[in-house]
Amino acid sequence: MAASLRRYFFCTKRFTNVSSIHTHVTTRRISGSSARMGSRAPVGFIGLGNMGGFMAKNLLKQGYPLIAFDVYPESLIEIQELGASIANNPAEVAEKVDKIVTMLPSSPNVIDVYLGNTGILKNVNPGTLLIDSSTIDPAVAKQVSAAAEKKGAIMLDAPVSGGINSAREATLTFMVGGKEEEFRAAKDILDCMGKNVVNTGPVGTGQAAKICNNMMLAISMIGCSETMNLGMRLGLDPKMLASIMNTSSGRSWASEVYNPVPGVLDNVPSSNDYQGGFGTALMTKDLSLAQTAATATSTATPLGSLAHQLYRVMCNRGLGNKDFSIAFQFLKEQTEV
Ligand code: NAD
């Protein structure tokens, strides 16, 4: 199993013995001097995976000293080499800083990191600004934000769109749920990691915007994939078909920027054996969040529901670690069967 897939499934479990995991890496633990280095106040960063690793590096580049934590020790090696201090758990991060960014796989991880036995809220200082950029259930974002408020802290949901390249290049879009003045307080930090930072309304609306966008993305990726497959079976050249769609009414982000057929575009996952990019397992999680929200609000989302089922089948077929444009390959194989 590839490392990132192993990490994804590993991380969706709850952790009971984080300190023993950490004994396997030699880490520079927090010291007062490293926490105070630089002219800017240190920022805490929890969850240094595919996205968070680049985001944390961009904060360091902009002069923010970092205090980092991740349950997966390998994730911390590079950031430590770049000068970050490493904490033993989220509570220890919270003790040392008054701003924390979290970038975790899914809702259970966010609950663990904020509300767990060694979670942020065990030690949070009143007035601390907590920014969660994970894609999670809007209801969980509201629940954690309410718990933070009881401790005198502020928690905003700030999920991102844009993949690993945008995280690396600091061009992410942040959809931020929270009050206007809290949004303004978070903006300096978010501007170091993204180029579009939008206040979507109260807490939870950042997640709402994110899961709606991703439901549309999943549906359009499947639509583009089945259309390209049909065209190719009718004898059309895929590059020619894509160029016709992209100058006609069938155009979409999936067809134009992220075409799922290998060889139509360079530098996209489909032309690299569907590696890198946005994992099918993560897309399946986002579709599940959209379905939960649709059920909670009695909203009809027939195509979102069908897309969710298809992506679940792809995961069951062992494609969870492939980029979500693998939908093309999956549908092509169904046709051939
Ligand atoms: P990832 O699995 O690569 O990274 C998550 C990190 O969180 C891992 O390093 C993991 O060890 C750490 N983690 C998990 N549980 C933890 C805990 N209890 N305490 C501390 N650390 C913990 O995931 P990613 O691709 O970086 O995605 C992060 C979030 O961003 C997800 O919610 C995803 O849906 C969203 N997102 C991802 C992309 C993308 O292209 N990868 C794009 C947009 C949004």
What does this molecule look like?
Strand 8 (172-177), helix 11 and strand 9 form a beta-alpha-beta unit. The relative contact order is 0.09. The protein has helices at 3-11, 18-22, 32-36, 50-61, 74-81, 90-96, 107-115, 120-123, 138-150, 164-169, 180-191, 205-233, 238-246, 253-256, 280-296, 302-319, 327-336, and strands at residues 43-46, 66-69, 85-86, 99-102, 129-132, 154-157, 160-161, 172-177, 194-201. The chain is α/β, with parallel strands linked by helices. Strands 3-2-1-4-5-6 form a 6-stranded parallel beta sheet, with helices on both faces. Strands 7-8-9 form a 3-stranded mixed beta sheet. The chain folds into 2 domains: 2-202, Rossmann fold (3-Layer(aba) Sandwich), CATH 3.40.50.720; 208-336, N-(1-d-carboxylethyl)-l-norvaline Dehydrogenase, domain 2, CATH 1.10.1040.10. The longest helix is centred in the middle third of the chain and has 29 residues, at 205-233. The two termini are 26 Å apart. Helix 12 packs across helix 16. The structure holds nicotinamide-adenine-dinucleotide. Nicotinamide-adenine-dinucleotide (NAD) binds at residues 4, 7-8, 11, 15, 46-52, 69-72, 75, 103-106, 109, 112-113, 134-135, 160, 163-164, 278, 282.
Write out key terms for the chains shown.
N-(1-d-carboxylethyl)-l-norvaline Dehydrogenase, domain 2; binds nicotinamide-adenine-dinucleotide; Rossmann fold; disordered N terminus; alpha/beta; three-stranded mixed sheet; six-stranded parallel sheet
Topology:
Layout: H1 3-11, H2 18-22, H3 32-36, E1 43-46, H4 50-61, E2 66-69, H5 74-81, E3 85-86, H6 90-96, E4 99-102, H7 107-115, H8 120-123, E5 129-132, H9 138-150, E6 154-157, E7 160-161, H10 164-169, E8 172-177, H11 180-191, E9 194-201, H12 205-233, H13 238-246, H14 253-256, H15 280-296, H16 302-319, H17 327-336
Parallel strand pairs: 1-2, 1-4, 2-3, 4-5, 5-6, 8-9
Antiparallel strand pairs: 7-8
Helix pairs in contact: 7-9, 12-15, 12-16, 12-17, 15-16
